[in-house]
Amino acid sequence: MSLRTALSCATAIIAVFILSACGTKTASQEQQTAEVKLIIKASNYKFDQTEYRVKGNQPIQFSLETTGNHGITINELDLSLDPTNQNQVITPAAGTYTFECSIACGSGHKDMKATLIVE
């Protein structure tokens, strides 16, 4: 086999691997859909509710509607929303989770707290 033939074969094999990897999605990369939606509104250094309740063990679309630069993160649920990523679908486990604004948004930032209760 000539060097040119060997290089052509190697290039073809590499291309097959690259193309097959591009078409493969892991479960975390796939966009989940959810019938249940929870909208969290943030503005003027507060959330629209101090407590949010949802049923657990089902996909839920969390959405952040914000006036200003606000975000939320719940590390235990791998939930992170901000003005550039306003929607996320997760299946939360039962529990009580406290969250606060994850973006230093001004003088009232420290008061932006709420609770998520997953039943």
Automatic annotation (TrEMBL):
Statement: the UniProt record of this protein carries the keyword Signal: yes
Keywords linked to the UniProt accession: Signal
InterPro entries: Cupredoxin
Keyword Ribosomal protein: no
Endpoints of the signal sequence: 1-27
Protein name as it appears in the record: Cytochrome C oxidase subunit II
Organism: Paenibacillus agilis
Organism phylogeny: Bacteria, Bacillati, Bacillota, Bacilli, Bacillales
